[in-house]
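Forum: Protein Structure Q&A
Topic: Joint prediction for protein chains with partners

I've read a bunch of threads here and the consensus seems to be that you should model interacting components together rather than docking separate models afterwards. I'd like to see that in practice. Below is the full input, 458 residues plus whatever partners are listed. Could one of the regulars post the assembled result?
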Amino acid sequence: MKFRIVMTATLLGLAAATFAHAADEPQVVRQEMMKKIGGATGAMAKMVKGETPYDQAAAIAALQTIADTITLFPEQFPEGSETGMESEAAPAIWTNKADFEAKAMKLHADAEAAIAANPADVDALKAVFGPLTQNCGSCHETYRLKKG
Amino acid sequence: MRALLKILVALAVIAGAAFWFLTEPQPVEFSRVQQLITMRSDAARGEQVFWAGGCASCHAAAGAEGDARLVLSGGVRLKSDFGTFVAPNISPDPVAGIGNWTIAEFANAMLAGVAPDGGHYYPSFPYGSYSRMSDADIADLYAFLNTLPPSGVASAPHELAFPFSVRRLVGGWKLLYFNAAPRVTLASADAVLARGQYLVEGPGHCGECHTPRDLIGGFRSGEWLAGAPNPEGEGIIPNITPGGSDISGWSAGDIATYLETGFTPDFDTVGGSMVEVVRNLAHLPASDREAIAAYLKAIPARPNGYSAAN
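Posted by a regular:
Agreed with the consensus. Here's the joint model:
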């Protein structure tokens, strides 16, 4: 009986450890980061499209999320994390790391510039939103694969 | 013995003659060429055709941005199972480009896959789709291309291994797969759907990547736009029919927005070669993107044309 309890506890502990481990994998961390950036972009896109009213504080917060998240993003591609966990990272990231990092820093700089512009209304946000989101495609074009 | 040899030689000659006859490049019908020659063209309208056709994606230099995408010096390399195809210079330069082409030569290239020297083009140049284009679009595109800046960059040859290096064999491919028939029959005669069908099946040449191919590069039948392994390497090209899991949950509005901005409904963004396609389609009127979306919602649902391993 005692043995069973110990075994069950051990297995549960192992399962929990595996779970925690999976969440720490760079493949998962970087996917979460991209989702965070996507969420921030979506919040601004809704304002740009007029689906939600313009909220300056929320727009600045979204820009800050993008600026902060993308800074840490290029660190999430260590050797050995090329595949797995449904990673859609393209091999070019590892063969062309300097350019990949430069593209991330370009998004960071554009997000910071948008914050500095302090968009007061939706038209001011539109003016920075277009150039900012050009970064998504220009990086994904080379560094992201679509997986089935 | 000698009689047998004679028979074999005779059979070989007949087979050779049949091959030569059947793989003969067939240019556009003369009556259609006559019509094109006498047509009025509109270069401004041709620019819309240019963006719908995605010409710059292959014929502008790799990595070109902004106005540089209008310099059609060629050079983009398309990897495939048959070797690497290198897009040629189609700028109006009279020597390096196509500045000396007549509209008849242009129509033969676009609609029949036949070069000015009478030979076949490889279907990496998507005339298998462009064959569905209207006379007006061909004439207007011809006029627009002639307004673009010339480039003196020489076209590079394709890098193909034998037997794919034998152009005449493309005649066999054409016999099997090349026509101008609609890819799907739509139940409705709605004008928006018809426009979408024209754009997707014709100039947009969406099926060239989104439809899975057989061993010799023809579309697998009954799998129109069902998605395919990425011909250029790892990953997949999504299933864009209402079946599968890639975009079946998207509304027509979601599709139209994606084609304009690159954003998916959950604010993920477009990647790979589709980035260029969105850059091109963003130049079209919203009604054209809406027509493409309506067509994609109306075509038969198919299971994914790629396997989960891709």
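The radius of gyration of chain A is 20 Å.
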